[in-house]
Amino acid sequence: TQLLEQSPQFLSIQEGENLTVYCNSSSVFSSLQWYRQEPGEGPVLLVTVVTGGEVKKLKRLTFQFGDARKDSSLHITAAQPGDTGLYLCAGGSNSGYALNFGKGTSLLVTP
Amino acid sequence: ETGVTQSPTHLIKTRGQQVTLRCSSQSGHNTVSWYQQALGQGPQFIFQYYREEENGRGNFPPRFSGLQFPNYSSELNVNALELDDSALYLCASSLGIARETQYFGPGTRLLVL
């Protein structure tokens, strides 16, 4: 099993602050995906990164895939209360069909 | 385009009972994957169905079984329920297998007493 570790586990910040969350593994992944999950709902895909060193931007969110394709980060600029949720990273497994998820970072942004 | 739907939304069962959860895949998607998400954890892969056949399985016992129908909808069956089976069960659909983007439904919250 390819394990993904996410840090921090919990993060509480005020509106307007910047933050970075991390997703690390000792395994190489063919791709990494970031999801946001709100209470009572399923995960919603934010982005997929495929190439080592790749950087993708989605409005105030910046995603980076490590050069060795073992880690990724998500940076949020000027966080808003609407960013509150559980941020999950998931890696494509060697088998190709399963997604291996980390435990997630629970983010709370207060006004 | 209809997204992934799941039923029921919530369910309460007692230990030893059996449960069936249902999933309708997104229009045009022929692959369904099931995940179990315990409280405070990330989703864990249970199995995947592609064109009505099991395509892969995670580390779950045989009392977790599934079906996929010709219209690509799917069922997850769990026999002899245990307390630890209490979790959010997520269904995800995708077009094809292997590294395809998976779209998740809202999940079914199962509580086993």
Identify the notable features of this structure and list them briefly.
heterodimer; A: 111 residues; mainly beta; six-stranded mixed sheet; five-stranded antiparallel sheet; B: 113 residues; seven-stranded mixed sheet; 50% strand
The helix-and-strand class of chain A reads: mainly beta
Radius of gyration of chain B: 13 Å
Q: Which class of secondary structure composition applies to the elements of chain B?
A: mainly beta
Rounded mean pLDDT of chain B is: 92
The level of helicity of chain B is under 10%
Characterize the overall form of chain B: globular
Q: What summary fits the major beta sheet of chain B?
A: 7 strands, mixed
**Oligomer kind:** heterodimer
Radius of gyration of chain A: 13 Å
Strand content of chain A: over 45%
Ranges of chain A where pLDDT stays below 50 over 5 or more residues in a row are: none
Number of strands of chain B: 11
Strand share of the residues of chain B? over 45%
User: Span from first to last CA of chain B?
Assistant: 38 Å
Profile the largest sheet of chain A: 6 strands, mixed
> How far apart are the first and last residues' alpha carbons of chain A, in Å?
40 Å
The helicity of chain A comes to: under 10%
